[in-house]
Amino acid sequence: xxxxxxxxxxxxxxxxxxxxxREKQIEHAIDYIDLDDPPEWFLQLSPTGKVPLLLVDxxxxxxxxxxxxxxxxxxxxxxxxxxxxxxxxxxxxxxxGSSLLMAQHAMATAxxxxxxxxxxxxxxxxxARLSEPLNEGLFGNPDEFSLVDAAVAPLFMRLxxxxxxxxxxxVSLPDPVRVWGERxxxxxxxQRSVVSDFADRYRDFLASKKSWLCG
Length: 215
Ligand SMILES: N[C@@H](CCC(=O)N[C@@H](CS)C(=O)NCC(=O)O)C(=O)O
Known about the structure:
Layout: E1 3-7, H1 12-23, E2 29-32, H2 40-45, E3 53-56, E4 59-62, H3 64-74, H4 84-108, H5 113-128, H6 131-135, H7 147-165, H8 175-185, H9 188-191, H10 198-208
Parallel strand pairs: 1-2
Antiparallel strand pairs: 1-3, 3-4
Bound molecules: glutathione.
């Protein structure tokens, strides 16, 4: 199977797939595009105009959660629970992870202090909801990797960087969530899932959006 991932270097949704590809050591190629000036071939292939796309022997997959499911089911070992209810619950939390990524982006790109603090407060409430499945053990043994891990690790990476850019961006996290994030950030597949100058590019990107945090 020939796999080509179409990426924008800063996209957390693409990063989910890279993490899984690296965890499973699946051979793949990555094509980076500029989302401010997307090439025509990309617009032809992507119905939503969004990355990631995964090109599989020329067929096109879109939506990060679908790509995660395809890669997991096609390349053993599988990282999803066998139990159908638990598997569906994992998918629910992956979707929740997507909404957290959007909320984090809104917080990071807020252009004044008041808007930033409003976004931060609601983000802290939203991310705290992850304590519930963690406390219930829904995501399994901490040493077992799951697709939920791949889906939320980009969130923790950006939270850590934002706090380094500006201490006011440090969000308070309930212990189970904080520990989960710290554990994920230690995984080699997560550390190697972004371009080498990611932090600089991310800060420049936020500055270009007139982010209050990086102004
Ligand atoms: N629901 C999509 C979200 C992907 C997404 O929002 N990608 C952003 C970059 S991080 C994008 O391509 N934006 C371009 C646009 O909205 O025109 C997924 O999970 O794959």
